[in-house]
Amino acid sequence: MARSPWGQDVPIHIAWFLIYVCAIGGLAFLIVHAIYVRYFAKEEEFAGTVNPKVAATVPERVKRHSFAARAFHWIMAAAMLTLLFTAFLPKVGVQFNWVPIHWIAGLVLTASILFHIIHATFFMDFWAIWPNKQDLEEGRNRMRRALGENAPAPRRFAKYPLENKMYHGVIVLAGLAVVCTGVFMLFRVRTGILPRNPYLFGDMTWGLMYVLHGLAGVGLIALIMVHIYFAMRPEKFVLTKSMVFGDLPKEYYLSHHDAERWVVAESSMSQGASD
Amino acid sequence: MAVIRDVMPAFDLLQPTSADEAQKLLQQHGRDAWVLAGGLDSFDWLKDRIKKPRVVVDLSGIDELRGVRSMSDGGVEIGAMTTLTEVVTNPTIKQKFALLSQGAELAASPQIRNQGTLGGNISQDARCHYYRAGWPCYRAGGNICYADTPTGRNREHAILDANRCVAVNPSDSAPALIALDAKFVIKTSKGDKVIDAEDYFIGPDIDITRLNILRPGDLLTAIRIPATWANAQFFFEKVRDRNVWDFALLNVASAMKVSGGTIQDARIAVNGAAARPLRLKAVEDAVKGKANNAATGEMAGKLAVQGAMPLQFNAYKIPLMRNLVKRSISGVEVASWAS
Lengths: 275, 339
Hints:
Chain A is mostly helical. Helix content of chain A is 60%, strand content 4%. A two-stranded antiparallel ribbon of chain A has the order 1-2. Chain B is an alpha+beta fold. Helix content of chain B is 28%, strand content 19%. Chain B is built from 13 helices and twelve strands. The interface between A and B is medium-sized, with 24 and 23 residues.
């Protein structure tokens, strides 16, 4: 908080120790999860068996991500990492001319997210990434089984497990928060693109915008740490490879995904291969 | 904003008697400590109750930080606590490095030069009136520059290298020291380090909250001027609103080695144009090997202001800087602009 020239107490930014809170929080999650998986987690079990007739129609390589989706993912990843490093390294003592790199990376992120929104809305199965009632019920059952309670075995996943969908939802919130506030912040610096206008909003609105930008930013530290951790885990590495090459092995598809919920039969490849 | 002048906030006053002791105290108290040299910058902050340090480390009792000493290479070492008056009147500096004498003599007023120190003059904080009033601007850790707004008063502010904050460095001795290729000695927890004068200053692109590289625990102890530029051809000019007790709108310092009317080597620096004193390296390179006449000066002046971006009320600084740089090359007599 600070006192504005008009005597008003206004927020100006987040407390920077939150950088360490989020980094340590993210690290703690990784350690706890790694220990849980190594020593306590049970083998994944799914209800039912794969229909051999359906299995016969599945190609050897199941397309999971289109080129456009993969390009979006990696461009967004590069922009996001650039944004995080340029935002927080100066705050922990590594000083360099970060502002131009930060706002240019911010523009790249904004453009890639706009592309993704249009692409996902009109050219992909929009609802594939959003949790539905069945996801929640099965998620609850999986949780109960993990805790040792009796619960029906869940069906195999559709294209995305509930965890992916929930992570996507949180990233959407944090990403939109930094992008929306960041676009307005472009009016505060000399970019050569937008006319500087620090009076676009009042001090309180600007202050809240900086706080929201900061909170979403530090939150993304933990979220990105978790994302990279799961991408590196051996049992998930096949999914990481699919984000590079675009497809999954048939065996993985049949053991983890429900062919009725994510249809990828040769004749309907294009339907399931767009995200 | 109400400013309470007169009574300073309470703090612990520590008065070390050696540079080592002072550095250890600064290290011990970190960001809670405030370095007090001549007090001319410090007491403004303290009496306005804008800076409220828990500990003030007063350097006035450290004799080793005072005085001008000759070095074996023919240069001089000046203690950071040497007053500006001592710098101005020292015979060796006047004889060999008159550029520094000229710059220091144009700082403030005789009374202030009697109290103000060379280390304090080069390390003083920005004089932007919004920042000094205690408003939550970028330099104060906030998220706005009040001077760089559609209605901001920015006559004294930066035309070059602005990055969110548009405050300028106010020192008169800094450009002279850069032109003389001075080295600054800094005592840190890891020992002494010696850096070039131009590297002592940093702009808002690197750190928006400070004007120099000193971190908590660091202490500037001495300024060394090598013999390299002794008795070179010097030029110092300061432009200000009144002829005494005022900060520079712009100043320029140059040291040139001229032989047969040709510039063999040159170092030129300006201050008041950016948040740090700017060494005009491109200008130096451009004038080497050229005659030190009006044409070279004119070319140098135009080159110096390339990339300048004026604010609402400081566009005058562009022709001012152009002309000062021209005069620093070709001298005052031939430096009137034809255009």
